[in-house]
Design goal:
- The protein is mainly α.
- The radius of gyration is 12 Å and the shape is globular.
């Protein structure tokens, strides 16, 4: 699956069955289902990829203090671009 196919799947009622959990969370996030995405981020706290997802979600929520905490836990710098750019980068990383 590539970014275009992933983006097209956002029109479906459910995420593609073969997505990894982080992509499933990003799928929910793109559809405005923040809580569903956040629930997935919390499944494996302490795992850098999940902590990175968690950071993005709190940044999107507007909670920069909490986002900064999760970026540090993930070992990532705070993303300086747009939320859309960060979402695309995360999707590209985990596809």
């Amino acid at each position: 699956m590539n970014l275009d196919q992933f983006t097209a799947s956002l029109q479906d009622k459910t995420p593609p069955a073969d997505l990894n959990p982080i992509l499933t969370a990003l799928w929910h996030d793109a559809r405005g289902e923040w809580a569903a995405a956040h629930n997935i981020a919390q499944l494996k706290e302490g795992t850098p990829s999940y902590d990175h997802l968690h950071a993005y979600l709190h940044r999107k929520e507007g909670d920069s203090f909490n986002a900064s905490y999760w970026y540090r836990r993930a070992g990532k710098p705070t993303f300086k671009g747009s939320l859309k750019d960060e979402w695309q980068e995360l999707v590209g990383t985990y596809l």
